[in-house]
Amino acid sequence: MPHITRFAPSPTGFLHLGHAYSACRAAAAAGPDGTFLLRLEDIDATRCTAEFCDAVEEDLRWLGLDWPQPVRRQSQHLEDYTRAITALTGQGLLYPCFCTRKEILAEIGDIHRAPHGPDGPLYPGTCRHRSATERAERIAAGEPYALRLDMTEARRRAGSGLRWHDADAGWQQATPELFGDVVLARKDTPTSYHLAVTLDDAVQGITLITRGTDLFAATHIHRLLQALFGLPVPEYAHHPLLCGPDGKRYAKRDRALTLRSLRADGISPAEVRIRLGLS
Ligand code: GLU
């Protein structure tokens, strides 16, 4: 069956070989009869620049990839996320969290003993039990706040037996509770990675989500959000992260391995594909 796939980088730097691998896998997974889409996950206004956004398109084209226009840019759809946040708030599933990072760390105490989830220590729930009056007063006073999902309640509403399927790992029982009360709207923007990615994959009709194994666990949260919003459940294929000769995964710090620098060094797209093990 032809798939609709996507590559959804956050344009906070130039694309490196790891991105190229991920993008090529997504395009290949769509196949000749499917559709490969590009999405720019640029909700972080301080780190995503116009230069990086343009560079993503230019570098992927140089690699030989193509996609239908227009490219979906998350920063242009903040009102969609706000609507979704309003819906969850109306269902009593979100609560404002005024904590700073420092306060959370102080509350957690000994970080090594604190319960951890896949993304680090769990939020200790400080703001979950604040009274409606205190919340209203602090919001009225202009105190910045994030919105967190009441995970226990969300889990109860979504029911048990949420599953998703990964092409390599097989059927997975969704365990979003491992993450605790995740942030769905950050202090600086009315969304978060988890909310925006889940909604956008549905809006764009993605049927197969390919991405690195570093996001495998996050899929548990996305599956829960799909259930809460009544969204279709796509197929997943989490691929291994590409590592350099030193055994470490490629990252933005590897400037020498950006597609731009390889191109400047006279490396051809075909050579890049060979290096990625894709030819
Ligand atoms: N924007 C995310 C990143 O660059 C990836 C999103 C996804 O593939 O789900 O890490």
UniProtKB/TrEMBL annotation:
Please give one Pfam family short name: tRNA-synt_1c
* Family matches, as SUPFAM superfamilies: Nucleotidylyl transferase (SSF52374)
What is this enzyme's EC? 6.1.1.-
**Residue ranges of the Glutamyl/glutaminyl-tRNA synthetase class Ib catalytic domain?**
5-266
Cellular component aspect of the GO annotation: cytosol
For this protein, what is any one GO molecular function term? Answer: ATP binding
Keywords from the named record = Aminoacyl-tRNA synthetase, ATP-binding, Ligase, Metal-binding, Nucleotide-binding, Protein biosynthesis, Zinc
The protein's enzyme class: ligase
Family membership noted in the UniProt record = Belongs to the class-I aminoacyl-tRNA synthetase family.
Name used for this protein in its record: Glutamyl-Q tRNA(Asp) synthetase
- Organism listed in the record: Novispirillum itersonii
The lineage is: Bacteria, Pseudomonadati, Pseudomonadota, Alphaproteobacteria, Rhodospirillales
